[in-house]
Structures are given as structure tokens and as C-alpha cells.
Amino acid sequence: MSTTPLLELRGINKSFGVVHVLHDVDLTIYPGQVTALVGDNGAGKSTLVKAVAGIYPLDSGEYHFDGKPVTVHGPKDASALGIEVVYQDLALCENLDIVENMFLGREVKTGPVLDETTMESKAREVLASLSVRTVKSVRQSVSSLSGGQRQTVAIAKAALWNSKVVLLDEPTAALGVAQTRQVLDLVRRLADSGVGVLLISHNLSDVFEVADRITALYLGRVAADVATKDVTSRQVVELITTGSSSDLDGASAPSATA
Ligand SMILES: Nc1ncnc2c1ncn2[C@@H]1O[C@H](COP(=O)(O)OP(=O)(O)O)[C@@H](O)[C@H]1O
Ligand SMILES: [Mg+2]
Q1: Cβ(19) to ligand 1 under 6 A?
Q2: pTM beyond 0.90, yes or no
Q3: Residue 13, SS3 per DSSP
């Protein structure tokens, strides 16, 4: 699999005031693959996602997209490249229906008038293309949906814009077994359609089930970037909790800071 990475970050640093959160982080996302980003609470996963999305400016480091250096100054630059993010705190509007949520801020209009027919059919189309069958009507209000259905809608929304890279911050954290199943299936289908997916998850069984690669962050440094098939879950637990795994080839232990 020697495909060009869709997204490649090199040597990323990010501080908030005196708190240095990301240290020389490298992150690579390939088309058609699910890359899992794992790490303990506070490791810097959400910060990294927000840096990719242009929400946080980088202090230093290189940002490459589709093999070319790019500058991402804000969320608009990221979405123009085809990068979409589903945040941990979802950001769907309860009182709006599925179509309204999917097109919020990016409504399709004919002159000044909303083109409801087009938006409705595009919403149906993207749900169908991802084989989402659990949603009865795209005119259902989001408040009537289960947690799993909301995640499904949020992910489908991210897939709606011909996205090339979709970043999912803990999409299964609040879900039960059956709903987690649906969301993981959707994540896999999204990658199979050619999208490069970054999946943040605490749940190692989810990670092992759906991810092609695993990037482990420990205290803001990359502890390992490995193919899922080359690691055991015991090794990943070690990487998450100690930053290194003694018997893992290719895992770079973060240099100890004196
Ligand atoms: N906006 C911010 N201002 C200051 N510190 C922040 C901010 N966002 C995150 N941090 C700090 O950065 C570290 C990493 O946080 P975060 O990226 O949310 O970790 P994770 O998602 O892996 O749990 C934490 O110590 C957190 O307190
Ligand atoms: Mg987080």
C-alpha cells in the first residue's frame, strides 16, 4: 500500500500559553484507511484534531495535503480542502431536522429561496450511499433521534461535502453495543468509499475492529504509528499508559524529559 497520504503533518507543536500540548507530532492519514488515534485523557487528541481542522493555529510544523504543502488558517481552509470533523460534543441542533442540520450554514439556495427539494434529496442520497437504514425520515427533528442515530447523521453530514478526510472525535463514547456497531460499520463504509478516516477512540476493541493503522499519543508526543495487524491490544495499552512498549518494533518511545 504505497499510496500518497491524503494528509500529512510533520513536527507539529502547539501550546496554550505556557502549556505545551503537542510536541513534534507527525500524523499521516491515507485514503481508504481508518487511522485510529488513541491516547489517555489529556494526551492531546482533540487538540490535534482541532489543529488539523484549522481551529487552532499551529506554533510550528508542516501541513501537507494530497502531497502538497498547504496553509490552513481556519476551518474554511480545511473544508475547502475536503476535511470535515465530527466533534466530541457533536454540534447538531436539537430543534432542527436532519436536512436542516446537514446543510446548516451551507444551505442550497435558488436566489434568496432555500432549495428544500435539492437539500432533501442530497440528504437522502448520502444516507443511502452509506447504507444508513435506521433513520425513518430526513424531516425528523434531531431531538427525536437516539445517540447512535445522531452520530450517524453527524458522520453522514461530514460525508456530504465530497470530503476526502473525515475526523471523528470519540464517536462511540456515549453509545450502547448495538449503536456502536452501526457507527463502526458506517466508519468502515466511509473509508471503503475512499475517504481517509481518523477515528479517535478509547475503546480498543473498536479500534482493533475497524482501524487499519494506529497512532498512539502519550503526553502530546507520538508514541507509535503502526499497522493494526502488527500490534496486540496489550501493547497498545502499554503505549497509552506508559508511552512505550518494550517489545514493539518501530514504536518510538518519547524521549524522557529531564
Ligand atoms: N483551549 C485550551 N486551553 C488551554 N489548555 C487546553 C485547551 N485545550 C486543551 N488544553 C489542554 O491540552 C491538553 C490536551 O487536551 P485534549 O487535546 O483535550 O486531550 P484529549 O482529547 O486527548 O483528552 C490537556 O492538558 C488540556 O487541559
Ligand atoms: Mg478529547
Answers
A1: yes
A2: no
A3: strand
Identify which of 19, 20, 38, 170 to mutate to test ligand 1's pocket (most ligand atoms within 8 A of the CB): 19
**Ligand 1 pocket, 201 CB below 6 A?**
no
What is d(CA 63, CA 114) in angstroms, rounded to the nearest whole number? 36
Map residue 213 onto helix, strand or coil: strand
3-state secondary structure at position 169? strand
Mean pLDDT score, 4-8: 95
Domains in the chain (CATH in brackets) are 7-91+162-242 (3.40.50.300)
Percentages (nearest 5) of helix, strand, coil residues in the chain: 35, 25, 40
Return the bridge partners of 25, or none. Answer: 12
Pairing outcome for strands 60-65 and 7-16: antiparallel
pLDDT confidence bin for 181, thresholds 50/70/90? confident
- CA-CA-CA-CA torsion for 42, 45, 48, 50, nearest 10 degrees? -90
How many Cα atoms occupy the beta-carbon half-sphere of 82 within 13 Å? 13
Whose CA is closest to atom 1 on ligand 1? 16
Q: How far apart are CA 214 and CA 66, in angstroms?
A: 20
Q: Which residues pair with 227 in a beta bridge?
A: 213
Q: Is the dihedral of CA 106, 107, 108, 111 positive or negative?
A: negative
Distance, in Å, from the CA atom of 129 to the CA atom of 118, rounded to the nearest integer, reads 16
